[in-house]
Amino acid sequence: MRKINDDAETLIVTAKDPEDTVVVMGKHDYDSMQETMRILSNPYLMEKLRRGDAQIAAGKAKQHDLLTDFDDD
Q1: Neighbours of 5 (CB within 10 A)
Q2: Residues 14, 22 contacting (CB under 8 angstroms)
Q3: Gyration radius of the chain's alpha carbons
Q4: InterPro entries per the record (predicted)?
């Protein structure tokens, strides 16, 4: 289990019946995959991503420091 979490690898556990095969993965990787699927299935969020990509490709993006909740601004 530790190796799966440390290496971000998955473990495929097979059974005699292929329908009973399972995949073991770290919770962090699972949560990340779920979030990605949520975003990909949300048309509104995907459109925002496409608009952002288009702005970057057109040279209309500006780089700035990342703000956090703890910043004074």
Answers
A1: 13
A2: no
A3: 19
A4: Antitoxin_Phd/YefM (IPR006442), YefM-like_sf (IPR036165)
